[in-house]
Amino acid sequence: MAHATLKIIRDEHAALAAMLRSVLLLLAQYRRHAETPDFALLRAMLFYIDEFPERLHHPKESTLLFPKLRLRSNQVAAVLDRLDREHEQGESQIRNVERALLGFEIVGESRRAAFEETLQRYVDFYLAHMRTEELEVLPLAERVLTEQDWAELDAEFSLNRDPLTGHEPDAQYRALFSRIVCLTPAPIGLGPARS
Ligand SMILES: [Fe+2]
Ligand SMILES: [Fe+2]
Predict the structure, then answer these.
(1) What digits encode the pLDDT tens for the residues 143-190?
(2) Domain extents for the chain?
(3) Is 4-183 CATH 1.20.120.520?
(4) What is the pTM of this model?
(5) What is the number of the ligand closest to the CA of 17?
(6) Dist. CA 188–CA 133, nearest whole Å
(7) What percent of the chain has pLDDT over 90?
(8) Does residue 25 carry a pLDDT above 80?
């Protein structure tokens, strides 16, 4: 049976991966055209990552899904330990990216490469993290969790949905999402496609 929790996690991963790739794409465009970035847009995109995946998605995995899995199986204990550590590092990693962006904005061109490298490392880190969850953790969860586990998880995971997975954003986030969607190229947004 397909469980809501699994779909929500996979959809949220897809939204985060698309957002991370969109930031890289934008940066590559800015570099090719030797342009000064739209810093407000980049800040909005990083704010989204901080506000949704960092504060909602990863904590739900660490506090709800992983403990249930640890109870049912010791097969992936070491992997879960590593993923938990990565969730803890997420906060300081996004701060590093935001700080590098601030350096680029305030100091200028000499900080472009440092920002690009910091962001690339962050994107690589999160794509690898999500790949491990999808390839090792979710398939095990499908095998070992009980119907009662799934019912509890589905109720919790259905709260606080990420607006980039097709859910209407709260009023407080509407301006943020329309800004991101209007200015960012596909796949996240409707902004102009450029070479
Ligand atoms: Fe995670
Ligand atoms: Fe995840």
Answers:
(1) 999 999 999 999 998 886 666 666 666 666 666 666 766 666 665 566
(2) 4-183
(3) yes
(4) 0.86
(5) 2
(6) 22
(7) 59
(8) yes
Q: Give the distance (Å) from ligand 2 centre to CA of residue 4.
A: 14
CA 99 – ligand 2 centroid, Å: 24
Question: Can you tell me whether residue 35 is helix, strand or coil?
Answer: coil
d(CA 33, CA 36): 9
Å from CA of 41 to ligand 2 middle: 24
Angle at CA of residue 176, ends 123 and 41, nearest 5°: 55
What are the φ/ψ torsions at residue 126 (nearest 5 degrees)? Answer: -75, -35
| Cβ count within 10 A of residue 194 | 10
Cis ω for the linkage preceding 37 (within 30 of 0): no
Q: At what angle do helices 112-132 and 4-32 cross, to 10 degrees?
A: 160
Nearest Cα residue to 162 out of 8, 47, 20: 8
How many angstroms does the Cα of residue 175 sit away from the middle of ligand 1? 27
Tell me the backbone φ, ψ of residue 162, rounded to 5 degrees: -70, 125
Contacts of 177 (CB under 8 A, 6+ apart): 48, 163, 164, 169
